[in-house]
Amino acid sequence: MPLKSKCYACLKETNNLKNNYCPKCISELFDKTVPKKLTFDRKEFINKRAEMSDKMSISGVQDKISLAFDSSKNLIPTAKNGKYILKPIPIHDNALNLEDIPANEHLSMLISKEIFKINTAHCGIVEFSDGELAYITKRFDYDSDGKKYDQEDFASLMNTTPSTHGKDYKYDSSDYLGCSRLIKNFVASHKITVEDFFKRVLLNYLIANGDAHLKNFSLYSKPNSNEYTLTPNYDLLNTRYHINEKYGDMALSLIEDYYTPTFEAVGYYTYADFVYFAKLIELPQIRVEKIFKLANESLDKIEKKVINSFLSDNAKEFYLNTYKQRLGRINYIVKK
Ligand SMILES: [Zn+2]
């Protein structure tokens, strides 16, 4: 009997892996093509990215590149119609612990998908030709026939740009309350979507993602449909491990220029802030309690995922400690 090992996408242990992936992930993430090791390394990736940067349709200028399967079932860089986005360990960055970034994003996405049950982009870890690990995620803005979805991020839906709100426009021009209002304006099934959004905001707080800014939320509508809804969750990371203090607990305030008495006393968001925020976005208290219960009952599962993840031992310890600390915060209630 072969030894059990973990799937590079869902982290589940099984002895039924093909090239590091379980059958479910081969189907979900790779559309039934068993992926091989990448045929290039990070150095070649960087050169390719430079070559293709003018033609690429992924927004942003981060260290990422589009991939597609070629006729021999190799995942290769492509300027057009790439179904995947590859994000290796970044290079030009002032951040700390760079080598843990791919595993951190992978773990955070799995927590969103499997523990918080949020619609989340499919993702996994892949190996470069030299064995170095990178993060890979499947694009969600195409249907199975290759038709592009109509997708807009919240910054663009709010018409905020560097020229209207300065270079930090994606952090400075709104708050999470403003995002909820936007959902109410654009989404027909907004009650469900606002609840989904609340859960995403709480998750970002719990995993210490300080980068859930306006471009990290988007609405999309499928081809031939006018119905807008939130896209799957994407770009999740415990940013605290890579960028030191001084960086806000969250990318946006829950409610700009408003602080609950508890916040004023302790200096960070606690139970009272999320409950007040929920009230303003008209999320019933019973739904809030249900989401808090899910968060409170998540710790064992989070622990297992963290231990099983590709993070270094230091990063695992940090991830778990921040999660526990944040969980403590959201349960903090001032006793009168
Ligand atoms: Zn799997």
Report on this model:
- With about 325 residues, the protein is an alpha+beta fold.
- The chain folds into two domains: about 5-140, no CATH class; about 150-330, Phosphatidylinositol 3-kinase Catalytic Subunit, Chain A, Domain 5.
- The protein has helices at about 25-30, 40-50, 100-115, 155, 160-165, 170, 175-185, 190-205, 260-265, 270-280, 285-295, 300-310, 315-330; strands spanning about 5, 15, 65-70, 75, 85, 125, 135-140, 150-155, 220, 230.
- It has a five-stranded antiparallel β-sheet. The protein has a three-stranded antiparallel β-sheet with strand order 8-9-10. It has a two-stranded antiparallel ribbon with strand order 1-2.
- Helix 3 (about 100-115) packs antiparallel against helix 12 (about 300-310) and helix 7 (about 175-185) packs antiparallel against helix 8.
- The radius of gyration is 20 Å and the shape is globular.
- Zinc ion (ZN) binds next to helix 1.
In short:
The chain is an alpha+beta fold.
Q: Keywords for this structure?
A:
11% strand, Phosphatidylinositol 3-kinase Catalytic Subunit, Chain A, Domain 5, alpha+beta, binds zinc ion, 336 residues, three-stranded antiparallel β-sheet, 2 domains, 13 helices, five-stranded antiparallel β-sheet, globular
Based on the coordinates given, report the CATH architecture of the largest domain.
Answer: Orthogonal Bundle
Strand content: 5-15%
Mean pLDDT: 92
Strand order, largest beta sheet: 4-3-5-7-6
User: Strand tally, please?
Assistant: 10
The Cα radius of gyration reads 20 Å
| Low-pLDDT windows of residues | none
Largest pleated sheet: 5 strands, antiparallel
Cofactors, ions, other ligands: zinc ion
Shape: globular
CATH topology term of the largest domain = Phosphatidylinositol 3-kinase Catalytic Subunit, Chain A, Domain 5
Q: Tally the helices.
A: 13
Structural class: alpha+beta
Q: What's the helical proportion of residues?
A: 25-40%
Oligomer: single chain
Q: Which class of the largest domain in CATH terms?
A: Mainly Alpha
Number of domains: 2
Order of helices and strands: EEHHEEEHEEEHHHHHEEHHHHH
* Alpha-carbon distance between the two ends: 61 Å
